[in-house]
Amino acid sequence: MSRAELKKVVVVEKIIGGHITNEEGAAVLGLSCRQIIRLKKKYLTEGGATALVHGNRGRKPAHALTDETKERVAALYSQHYAGSNNCHFAELLTERNALELSPSSVRRILLDKGMKQAKQRRRKKAHQPRERRSQAGALWQIDATSYAWLEDRAPAFTLHAAIDDATGVVVGAIFRPTECREGYSIVMQQGIQQYGIPLGLYSDRHTIFRSPNEQLTVEQELTGDTKPLSDFGKAMEELYITHIKAMTPQAKGRIERLWGTLQDRLVIELRLLGINTIEAANEVLPALLRKHNRKFAVQPKSGENAYMKLDSSIRLDYVFTTRERRTLGQGNTLSYANKTYTFAKPTSYRLDAKTVVEVRQTLSGEVIVWHDDTAIKLTEIEKPIRKPEQERKKASSAQPRKPAQAHPWKTTVQQNHIKRTTSKSDFQDALYSQHNSFAEALW
């Protein structure tokens, strides 16, 4: 019996013994007098104190899960859904196995089987939350994270993504081998094409987003630049997007929390789909993002959005490019990446030689000249193939010749040798003798 039931027994026995009245007993137990009278009758007719025990004590509830269901849930977790949290596991059971269970029921089953949640939550340093923007499109947050998205089935690679601050909608995402400008450019193009141009963009201070040289060069000042920008920063300026660079990760906490959610859920989803390569992961990523947005997106405070409409004359592939300045040569030619280019078609623009132009290269590798907000396509000039020069035969070295015994060089060497090894008188005698022999040889 519980303590509450023991208290009922003591009070009812005192009422039956005449020690207290029904009203006093009702006040002690917090019941009505009619309920006290029922308890007295039950005590006297149904066997005393045991009659006051709850009738369902020791019985299995009618809505309780069967042992077979519990065993099935535990087996599914260990075989297919290992690593998922309780909420995600309950969703996957409903979606894939037609098992309607609450996260708390799943948690109790796993704990009874000795299976704890894969990731233990820990208290982190508290930061003042920043209020969401009131309109969709007022601010996007963009970032990238490297993770083992395919676990041990492939090396770790990087997910680039952007999230709307007001709604929590992931507007674009793509997997790339490493963090790169191309990945961020593709994410921005995905979001702009589907939703529109946002008013602002929040990022970290990676050199992809800002120029490592904070001071303008002389060439930049002469061309009219007001501040040094990276290629990505120039694209933001061209689209009139206010680019904010965060000083700490907590400043862009919306997308930092997104990484925790995706690393917890996306890994399981990719495993269940049998994805083993980064190419296959990119193919299924849009469908997984739509599923994520349906569950986690929220309604903005304002019904109106702040997106700017993309002008039909703007080609995003000509905006998100690398940009370098080159000087035109004679015949509208220029050198870029160790190749020579010229205009693909005659143009109405009169560009003189030594004119400084901006050369852009798209993500697909196309090279253009950007002049007066117009793209001028280039074509590569093939360099003539020159025949290799025939190798000339080298002259063989002459055979060494041995000088004659009476050669002047040899006599000079002998004189030097005699001079070093004999005295002055002996040297003179030897010299006279050598001279006489040399004269006889000539005659």
Automatic annotation (TrEMBL):
Source organism, top-level taxon: Bacteria
Disordered: annotated span: 114-135, 384-417
Lineage, uppermost ranks: Bacteria, Bacillati, Bacillota, Bacilli, Bacillales
InterPro entries: Homeodomain-like_sf, Integrase_cat-core, ISNCY_transpos, RNaseH-like_sf, RNaseH_sf
Ranges of residues in domain Integrase catalytic: 125-314
Organism: Cohnella xylanilytica
Signal sequence region: none
Regions of compositional bias (Basic residues) in chain numbering: 116-127
Transmembrane segments annotated in the record for this chain: none
A GO MF label: nucleic acid binding
Biased composition (Basic and acidic residues): 384-394
Protein name: ISNCY family transposase
A Gene Ontology biological process term: DNA integration
SUPFAM superfamilies, sorted: Homeodomain-like, Ribonuclease H-like
